[in-house]
Amino acid sequence: MKSASYLLIMMMLVGLASLFIIKRPDGKPYLSVDMIFGEAQQQANSLLDKSKRELNNVVDSAKSALGDETQSKSQATIYKWQDAKGNWHYSDRPNSRVNSQVHTLDPTKITIMAAENTDILKEKAEQGDQLDDKGGINGMKPSEVKKLVKDAQNVQKLMDQRAKQLDDT
């Protein structure tokens, strides 16, 4: 039984090998390594080309979507007016009661700052307004409070400078 299986397998291998040797009427063999791997290479190349086309379509769609967004951002308009107390107000709509100044925003000149982490303020508020052993309120020393106020004043100066720059443009 073993020899019959062995003989059958050997005949199949000889038959397969003969396809690489026996030639067709045009002089080419019926089967070649190039035929096997060349076809696989062609399929891989066509799949790669199709993937590239699809990727380029997606990139073009994204660019057009971003282009539309950029155009809408470049046309963004804000309105500014001053109330009776002298305070300036900004809005995306003009104030009908007073004369509003129109400002067109240029997205290339807008600076966006990241928000600070305010978790520490929440923790201190939860502790209550009780004096601690350091003599401060909510665990802050008087020197820390002074520094905090000074920092707030510096931030206010920066905001005023930025507002002045926006007014000058």
Written account of the structure:
This protein is mainly alpha-helical and 169 residues long. The chain has three domains: 2-73, no CATH class; 76-105, no CATH class; 111-169, no CATH class. Helices cover 58% and strands 8% of the residues. It has helices spanning 2-21, 33-74, 119-127, 142-168, and strands at residues 77-82, 88-91, 101-104. The chain has a three-stranded antiparallel beta sheet with strand order 2-1-3, with no helix packed on it. The longest helix has 42 residues, at 33-74. It is elongated and about 105 Å long. It starts with a helix and ends with a helix. The mean pLDDT is 79. InterPro entries: DUF4124. The chain crosses the membrane at residues 6-22. It comes from Pseudoalteromonas obscura. Pfam families: DUF4124. Residues 75-108 form the DUF4124 domain.
List the helices and strands and how they pair.
Layout: H1 2-21, H2 33-74, E1 77-82, E2 88-91, E3 101-104, H3 119-127, H4 142-168
Antiparallel strand pairs: 1-2, 1-3
- Main β sheet profile: 3 strands, antiparallel
SS elements, strand count:
3
Strand order of the largest sheet: 2-1-3
Portion in beta strands: 5-15%
Q: What is the N-to-C order of secondary-structure elements (H for helix, E for strand)?
A: HHEEEHH
Low-confidence stretches: none
Give the N-terminus to C-terminus distance in angstroms: 97 Å
Overall tally of structural domains: 3
Mean pLDDT: 79
Looking at the structure, what is the overall shape? Answer: elongated
Radius of gyration: 39 Å
Classification by helices and strands = mainly alpha
Fraction of residues in H or I helices:
55-70%
Please tally the helical runs, counting DSSP H or I stretches of 4 or more residues.
4
